[in-house]
Write a structure and sequence with these properties.
215 residues, Acyl_CoA_acyltransferase, Acetyltransferase, seven-stranded mixed sheet, alpha+beta, single chain, GNAT_dom, 8 helices
């Protein structure tokens, strides 16, 4: 994490850096897991632009001193009527859906450039995203690769499988849906901000589809 600082981005700031966000996403995930990365990047840009129009977006960026973006994550409170929320709710069933998604921060994207993985950047991003989150739970979907670096990170941070080998409508790719209870004793809530972090409220200014992929 040396020379890398974490910055809480407002929705407006994420929109301004959207090209960089998608570039990191493409290099970290799409180039490895999509048959047509360029087309997928265009599609994800449209989704991310819509998400950045929401005032309740929470976003954290990992930046070098020259402002180069090397990692990012963002999340939105889950709401009925949103594609990911409704699909996962139906798959979980009424009781588990209320337990896990009734008051949930849904992590939409979470990526770190390959050359910066394994340095603690991803863990720091995830903890900063969840720090002081008012929701009771957090949830995301990740590729069904239990031994991957991303899945090991999620497990070490308290995420547990809610659904395994799950296929979203229209996709043949298998995902795991993971959930984490956010409690007052959660280190993600108690961890103090890094001295080098630029701490700004996530919702300073006003201005679906959601799957957080492997970092």
């Amino acid at each position: 994490m040396e020379n890398i600082r974490l910055v809480r981005w407002t929705p407006a700031r994420m929109r301004a850096r959207l090209t960089d966000v998608i570039a990191v996403y493409k290099a970290a995930f799409l180039d490895f897991h999509e048959p047509d990365p360029a087309r997928a990047a265009i599609e994800r840009t449209m989704h991310a632009r819509r998400h950045a129009d929401r005032r309740d977006l929470r976003a954290v960026a990992a930046l070098l001193p020259d402002e180069r973006l090397v990692g990012f994550t963002y999340a939105l409170p889950g709401l009925k009527g949103q594609w990911w929320h409704d699909v996962v709710s139906d798959a979980l069933g009424p009781e588990d859906a209320v337990t896990w998604l009734g008051d949930c921060l849904e992590i939409v994207e979470f990526h770190v450039l390959p050359e910066f993985q394994g340095r603690g950047v991803g863990r720091s991003l995830l903890r900063e995203l969840l720090r002081e989150a008012p929701e009771q739970t957090a949830a995301l979907s990740a590729l069904e690769l239990p031994d991957s670096r991303a899945r090991r990170l999620y497990a070490s941070e308290g995420f547990v499988p809610l659904l395994s080998n799950f296929q979203f409508p229209g996709s043949w790719i298998e995902y795991a849906v993971l959930g984490k209870r956010l409690t007052p004793t959660d280190p993600a809530r108690e961890q103090p901000p890094s001295p080098s972090a630029e701490q700004r409220p996530a919702h300073d200014s006003g201005g679906d589809h959601r799957q957080a992929r492997a970092i």
